[in-house]
């Protein structure tokens, strides 16, 4: 299968899985608003799909959401089968994506450094070469 078609299939499955999480599973006493489907990678034979999800919250909350995702995996696959016409319906495998958490951490570190950066009106302290 050509690469451009694989990209379209990946994006289509990503949108369908995300829509199913928010529409169909939102009322099941779990905060699926904390879940973001960041990427889907379908195997070339269309039989397997790795679904990368980012989960906001504690590790305990993330573990609970992952167990719920695995319990509802068949339901998600059935929904994808009904909405997306492919030769095969891929078996979904969920993996945690830490990219958003890492990005938040970098932004927090940058915000901590921001007050320490001297402004243009302030004169920097003398360097060790200037002190006699």
Structure description:
This protein has helices at residues 3-23, 59-71, 73-83, 99-113, and strands at 35-42, 48-55, 91-96. The protein has 132 residues and is of the alpha+beta class. It has one domain (3-115): GMP Synthetase, Chain A, domain 3 (2-Layer Sandwich), CATH 3.30.300. A three-stranded mixed β-sheet has the order 1-2-3, with helices on both faces. Strand 1 (35-42) and strand 2 (48-55) form a beta hairpin. Helix 1 (3-23) packs across helix 3. The longest helix has 21 residues, at 3-23. It is elongated. The N and C termini lie far apart (72 Å).
Shape: elongated
Structural class: alpha+beta
Per CATH, the architecture is 2-Layer Sandwich
Strand line-up of the largest beta sheet: 1-2-3
Stretches where pLDDT falls below 50 for ≥5 residues? none
Main CATH class: Alpha Beta
Strand % is 15-25%
